[in-house]
Design a protein that fits this description.
Shape: globular
Bound molecules: D-xylitol-5-phosphate, zinc ion
Distance between the termini: 22 Å
CATH class: Alpha Beta
CATH architecture: Alpha-Beta Barrel
Low-confidence stretches: none
CATH topology: TIM Barrel
């Protein structure tokens, strides 16, 4: 597992007139991953960005491009995102059956990318069990997917610790990413619960000084982790 908290700003909250500038800001701030929220207007009500945008950003950065697919047909779209150069591809468990989930993970890993499985706030975590030895990452949604700028759903940290516990029981390890309403006030509880990576949309791009945000999030996380150990 990573030795420091991974911070993944979501460009959904950026100024769409200058996405190249948004990626440079993420680099200059010392953040780790560029989180790309793909919404199809079907799995979620909103429509955001897709393969051509990821393809356009690929030559602009060496940072990890982290594609979060909120789409109804991930098996069809996954190869396109892999071809476009995504480093992490995460699909939603609610959009697939168990066989499709296994196929999706295998396809992503065969292309040399990291495979993530995401769960909405009310989805039971037991369906993840057979996938944990195969998946590289579980994304715990801490808001209902669809829009940036929503409030963190209290209790999401308990779902992070439950995933970590289930992975341990399955004799495996999995990265846990948390997405939705993460900022200085909420990062502590999810990191203390075991989160390895946090997505931040508004908390990064709408901050008075985005360059400071990764450092402030890591500081708040460290403080909470120390508190949890004592
Ligand atoms: C929600 C998206 C999130 C969201 C994050 O469906 O997956 O990545 O845009 O934005 P904030 O951090 O503002 O909640
Ligand atoms: Zn996301």
């Amino acid at each position: 597992m990573p030795d420091r908290l991974l911070v993944a700003p979501s460009i959904l909250s950026a100024d769409f007139r200058d996405l190249g500038g948004a990626v440079r800001l993420i680099e200059d701030a010392g953040a780790d991953w560029v989180h790309i929220d793909v919404m199809d207007g079907h799995f979620v009500p909103n429509i955001t960005m897709g393969v051509p945008l990821l393809k356009a950003l690929r030559p602009a950065t060496d940072l990890v491009l982290d594609a979060h697919l909120m789409v109804s047909n991930p098996l069809r779209q996954i190869p396109w995102f892999l071809d476009a150069g995504a480093d992490v591809v995460t699909f939603h468990l609610e959009a697939v059956d168990d066989d499709e989930a296994r196929t999706a993970i295998a396809d992503i890993k065969a292309a040399g990318a990291k495979a993530g499985v995401s769960v909405k706030p009310n989805t039971g975590l037991e369906r993840l069990d057979p996938l944990l030895p195969e998946a590289d990452m579980v994304l715990i949604m801490s808001v209902e997917p669809g829009f940036s700028g929503q409030s963190f759903i209290e209790g999401s940290d308990a779902r992070v610790s439950e995933v970590k516990r289930r992975a341990q029981e399955a004799g495996t390890e999995v990265l846990v990413q948390v997405d939705g309403g993460i900022g200085e006030a909420t990062v502590g509880c999810v990191v203390a619960a075991g989160a390895d990576c946090v997505v931040c949309g508004n908390a990064f791009f709408k901050a008075p000084d985005p360059l400071q945000v990764p450092r402030l999030l890591r500081q708040a996380a460290e403080k909470a982790e120390k508190g949890a150990v004592q």
